[in-house]
Every structure is written in structure tokens, then in C-alpha cells.
Amino acid sequence: MPWISESAAEIGWPRLEQLMRQTIGETRRRICARPKRVLLLPPDITRAHSGVGRLTEMLYRQLSPEADVHVIPTLGQHVPHTPDENRRMFGSIPHERIHAHDWRNGCVHVGDISADFVMRACGGVADWPIPIVLNRMLIEEPWDLVINVGHVVPHEVLGFANHNKNYFIGLGGKDTICAAHMLAATCGIENNLGNLITPTRACFNKAEDDYLGRLPDLYVQVVMARNARHELVHTGLFVGDDLETYLQAARESREQNITLFDEPVKKIVCVMQADEFVSTWVANKAIYRTRMALADGGELLIIAPGLKRFGEQPEVDRFIRKYGYCGTPRVTAGYRVNADMQDLGHATAHLIHGSSEDRFSITYAPGHLTAKEIEGVNFRYADLNTTLARYQPDKLQEGRNTLSDGERFFFIPTPSAGLWATREKLYGRAGGFDRA
Question: Does the global pTM surpass 0.90?
Fold first, then answer.
């Protein structure tokens, strides 16, 4: 059960600071009375809108007078932060205290989730083991206290983000990230979204039990929703060290962050903020979170002024440019025979997640990519300035809008903060809907 749980229409920053002090008090009572070495594990800048960088700064300020405190943003295979991004995300935390996770060369193998367990978890659609390869600093250095900080929100791989995703994706090595993403893609993105325990989450839960039991750790998890002024605010905080802490946060997110439609939507317009989303690797969350709401033959328009590449690393960027978002049949057929697809399993899975499967069109209005580049990966292209002149985000309300010429669409200003689906898609899918 959570050590601390609080839900409200809005939890302001003064109260959040009090709750961080209460969190530290509980950790002193339950884990270590006088921690000397502390590790904080927040998300990276692609979750900046969640405010958890500021929570991390609060924890650092409260612990650093008496402890040696370090921070590792749980990047997964995302690009490490620049000093300026660290300042924007974590405020006054010294740059030298913030360490970049190296998913290729900075990890150590701690064990495996067997192929038999994987098969049981996913009903036999995948038959490979998941190697558990984790950040060397996390595993090999001594810690008196490890605090995971994050935002629980619907997620395409794990049903909901955060909790032990911080470890196995955020601080995972290449082999873990690739195997887990291919498992999730094989299960089907629309079977994962919004379920409390997906097959990949079940594997991570077992890995946490088997290999991380010795860590003196806990989770600080926030839930967010839009208030009456359409501002994204904190509505829940859940602190604890067990699975139920995650489940309570995920249940609240499920109630607050899933928008249901009786009928599919013909057109959705999204904005991906320029300071958070610079690659389709992360900006494609606009596709993931809206695909279950879009009508057959519908259109998704993504306004992405910061977009300047496809992958987070050069080799993944080249990979996406080579194959494009071409649909599950072509990607899975290629995975069987192409060595680069097998080597970059996470990128192969990403191609599946980012495809509409020819069911609806995807149009990007990017800030820094050309029409040739966008169309080369099988998206449609729209000029950013022309798009912004027609769809003015600062004048639109989240929800249904109608332009002066009669065009109707549904506007989503922060698609990464929720999930949009028809009732039929959510409740009628083959994998069911976890109502626990």
C-alpha cells in the first residue's frame, strides 16, 4: 500500500513541497534514518510538462545538506541532456551531479526473464527471453536511498508510464530495451494502451522482484489532469515501495486521463511542444495516444515546431529514414531477415507503433524537416507557418473546434498527457480492458 496518497482537484506547489518533506520523513523511518548516498531517478526532458523535474529539485535541496546526492535522468536510449536542458528541467541542481545514462556502454547484465515466462505473460505471441541489463552506477555503487520520481500516464508499451519502467527502460541497456519493445509491439500497441498490467509490465514486475530486491528504493508518482481553465495540473501523488502504489496511481490516471468517444473522430489536431519533442521517436506519442479514437479514413495533424530528426541517435535516425513507418506486415517480415532490424529491435518496434496501418492519414507540420524527409518515412507533410496560421493553438480549446469555413476537428494540446479512444476500441479489444 502507498505510504502517502493524496488526490484533489488540484495539488499546488506549496502542498507538493510539504509532501516531499513528508516523503523524506517516511524514508527515514522506513528505509534509512540518515542516508549518506542518495540516488534520484527522474524522467528526462520529454516529461518536462509533468513538473517532476521541480519535485526532483525539491528532494535534492532537502537531502543534499547532509547527503551525497546524485541524479540520473532515466533516458533509456534518448539523447542525454545538455547543461541548458538540465537547468530547465532540474533548476538549481548542479550539472556535475546529473549523470547521463549510457544505454550501450554503461550497463551491466544482472539476469534474465526466461522465454517460458515471457510466453506465459503474453499468451504465446512472443517466445524470446528478456535480458535484464541495467545502469552500472545504479547496480554497482552503494546507495542508502534510491528515489524514483515520475508521471503516471497511459503508455504504449507498459499500459501506464513510470514505476519500474524507470529501471528497465529508463536505465535499461540495449538488449533489455530492444527485447521489451519488440514484445510490446508483438502484443499490439492498442492492446497495451491503458491496461494496468501489460505483458511487458508483468515481465518487469518479475525482474524487479528477482533482481532489485536489495535496493533501498521507493516511488514518488504524480497524476495530472486539466482543470476548468484547461491547465495541466497535479491531481494525485502516490508514494511507496510496492506494486500497489503504482496500481493506485494508474487507476487514478485511468479515470482522469482517458477521454472516451461514442463514435470515432474524423480529424484530430495535436501540438507537440518544441522544447520537449525534437524527434518523431518522442513526437509520435501524438499517434500512439490518439489512434484508438481516429475513424477509418480520418486524419491526424501533428504540429511539431521543434521537430528536427526521426531517431534519438544517428543510427536510429538512419534506420527510420531507411525503412519508414510502413506497417506491421512489412516490418515483421523484414525483422525475420534483416540483420539491422534484429540488432535494433526497439527501433523495429517503433516503426510498428508509429504506423497507422493505412487506416488513417498522419500529417506532420515540422519546424526543421523538409517535405521530402517527412514523406520519405511515409507521413504527409504540411508547411508549419501555413498550418499555424490556420490552426492557432493559443486560440483553440482542447476538444471540438470549428473554423470559420466550417472545418471541424478535435484539438489536443498535449497528447502525451493522456489517451483518447472510442468505447468500442477500449472495451472491445481482444486483450480486454483491465478494470482491476
Answer: yes
